[in-house]
Every structure is written in C-alpha cells, then in structure tokens.
Amino acid sequence: MMRWLWPAGLAGRLALLLALALIVVQLITLPYFLRQQASAAAELFERSTVARIAHIVALFEPLSPAGRRQLLPAINSPYLDVELFFEPTATARAAADETALAANLSARLQRQVMIKRVGQEQAEEQGEPGGLPSLLPGQQRIAVWVPLADNSWLRFSTHSDLPALGWVAHMSAQLLLVCLALVVFAVVAARQITRPIRTFVAAAERLGTDVNSPPIPEKGSQELRRATRVFNTMQERLQRYVEDRTRMLAAISHDLRTSLTRLRLRTRFIADPQQRAKAEQDLEQMDAMLASTLSFARDDAASEKPVDVDLAKLLHTLCDDLIDLGEEVEYCGPEACTVCCRPLALQRAVTNVLSNAVNYGRRARVTLEPRVGNCEIRVEDDGPGIPEARMEAVFEPFVRLDPARNRSTGGSGLGLSIARSVMRSHGGDITLANRSGGGLAVHMVLADLATP
C-alpha cells in the first residue's frame, strides 16, 4: 500500500515530501493559533456580554414586574437568554465562580453579581437552556445572576458555543484551502526543480540516436551543472571517436584502392582470358566492399541534417523506380505524410530493404502507417523467409544466410546493417518477422525528429 502511494518519479517524490513537510508545520502551529484566537474571541465575547447585560439591567430596573415580563421576549436572542427570578437557585449560590468577568460586571453595575460556568449536564440539572458543549477554551456557556433593586434577579444565559462552532468550521475550511495551496505550490516547485533533470534525460536519449545532437545548456543547481558539463564532455569525446574512425577508414580505403589500381594494371598481363576475367571480378568485389564499408562508417556519423520530407512521396518514388526496372512492387498508404528526417539516409535504408525483398522474395509490398510521434514502414515479400535463429544475425556486417548469396548477387552483406543504423539514428528501429502465409515482413519504425 505504501509503495503504491510513493510516487515513482523524482518530481512526484519531491512534491509529496515538500507538501507533507508544509502540512506538518501547519498542524504543529495550529493548536497555538487556535488558543490565541480562542483567547481573543473569548475576550471580545465577554466585553460585548458585559455591555449588553448592563444595558438590559438599566432597562429592567425602573419597570414594574408586569412590564419586565412583557419585555423579556423582545430582549432574548439566539446568543443570550434572559429570565426573571425572585431569588437565585441553590446550586447557583453554592457554586458561584469568582472570575474576571464577575468582577468586571460587578464594577460596571455597582452591585454583586454571581457567574457560573456550566456544561451541558449542569445546564440540564438547573433547568437552564441546553446547548452544545464548548469546543474551544474560553468559550463555555455561562449563567450570570444580577440582582435588581426590588430583590428580584435576572439570569442571563449565554450560548457562546454556537458562534464557536461556526468559527471552527470557518477555520477548518481555511486550513483545508491552505493545505491545497501548499500541495499545488509543492507540485509546481518540484517540477521546476526537476526540469533540468528532464532536459538531461531527453539529451541522453537523443545521444543514443544522434551523436551529433546539440549539447545541453548548463543550467540548474551546481550538481546538475556539473553533471551536464561531464555529459557534454563525454559527447564531444564520442564525436571525436566517430570522426577519427571515419578518417581512418577513409585513409585505409584510399591506400587499398591505390593497391587495387596496380592490381588491375597487372591483370592485363594475364594470358589466360578466363583467369583474367576472374581476377578482374574479384577486384571489383573488393572495391565494392571498400565503398560499402566506408559508406557504412560515414552513416554512423549521421552528418546529414534533418529536414521536413513527404515520406509518402519518397516511398512512391522508390517503388516507381523498381517498377521501371521490371520489378513487382506495390505501395499502400496515405498520399501525403510529412515527417522530419534525414532523407538521403532514409532513402538508402529503404532501398536496401526493397532490394532484398525483390531479389529474394520475388515481389514487395510497401505499407506506410502514420502514428502519433512516429510512423511505420512495412515491407513484405513472398520469399522463403528467414530462420528464427538467424533473425538477429542478419543485421551483423558482412553476414549472409547461405553461400549461394555471393557478392555478385547478394551485395556486400551490409544492407540490413546500414538500414538498422539509419533507423536507430532516427530514434526508431528495424525488426524482422516471418509471415504466417509465407514470406518475410520488415518493420521499420521511424520517429519524427521534430517531436521533442
């Protein structure tokens, strides 16, 4: 249960901890605040009660008993009941409280008054009006006995518990609103604190697909700025590594092609025409392998800039080119689909997959399915498929399924390796699956590079 309540994200955890801390502080300070407010409310209530009692006594003093009884209904209020007695009850005389209110009222009226603070049960015993028990200190119900000049008594019964209940409800609503405001503040503050971390995570994901992605701005706390600086340094080292590897392969390719040129010249001195033709064929294959290897290495660098491209039009063009060459190719999908991608690299990846489909599957069907944030290019053929155990191996460089696919018919063995490299540089991937009715299905997921 506790694990379910504990948020998984850092922002949620920070927000929860901050909100709990602020709420605990509110709850700790609440009793002190309530005591202060209750004391102030009790003092104000006593002042108003003294003034009201003094005013009522001044009204009753000159009246006859009949006039006093007629005035009683008009004097009573929801917070103060006034009753006329010929003498105080025995309980009131025996248990009168000496309080500051009694002294204040006696001085104001210039006569001795009796005050009894009563609870619910005592009020019922004495026949006094009942009421709800007090909820706050200093706001109990009280009974005030005031003597008149003719030896009759007025009993004033206050109902201070009623305004106390309303005050508690008001304070509870205020506390709830404060807690809600604290939770909102905690969530906003936590998201603001973790924003650089989210930027850091997004940059790390981009680096996994594009080593040439822009560096992260050094913002946030000191620890985050330091981590960002280390991350940017690591990215620079990776870029230098890829560039050094590409330059090294280019140099090797240049040196080997120089040697291949000399070998081509020497093949002219081979007397046997068949041996000369075989030697020239081997040299052509070696040259093709060098070109493919260098191109594969350059694709890893992902130097091409992303632009908006109509992917549907690009696939249409590739299919039409193969149809013009006499191949059976069919396109299924929308007539327009704009995505942000590297068009030359993507064109090469799709061309490699289509070439495999028409060479080993007789015909190809290309399907484009746009999605939110990405799209899928699916190429299906009617060939023999690929054994499940070799599904992943065919993506390795220079790997062929069988010796019958030699370099003159099956390329250099880098087609699917290049396609996977291109798709991953676009934030997607490429997978293979055998179709239930026979043939192979190649799924290429392409993420829109413009989507954050």
Explain this structure to me?
With 452 residues, the protein is an alpha+beta fold. It has 13 helices and eleven strands. The strands form three sheets. Strands 6-8-9-11-10 form a five-stranded mixed sheet. It has a four-stranded antiparallel sheet with strand order 1-4-3-2. α2 runs parallel beside α5 (100-109). The radius of gyration is 46 Å and the shape is rod-shaped. Residues 120-139 and 404-408 have low confidence and may be disordered.
Write the layout of secondary structure elements.
Elements: H1 2-5, H2 10-60, H3 65-75, E1 80-85, H4 90-94, H5 100-109, E2 114-118, H6 120-125, E3 141-147, E4 153-158, H7 161-209, H8 222-267, H9 273-301, E5 307-310, H10 311-324, E6 328-332, E7 338-341, H11 343-360, E8 363-370, E9 374-381, H12 407-410, H13 415-425, E10 429-434, E11 440-447
Parallel strand pairs: 6-8
Antiparallel strand pairs: 1-4, 2-3, 3-4, 5-7, 8-9, 9-11, 10-11
Overview in brief:
By secondary structure, the protein is an alpha+beta fold. 57% of the residues lie in helices and 15% in strands.
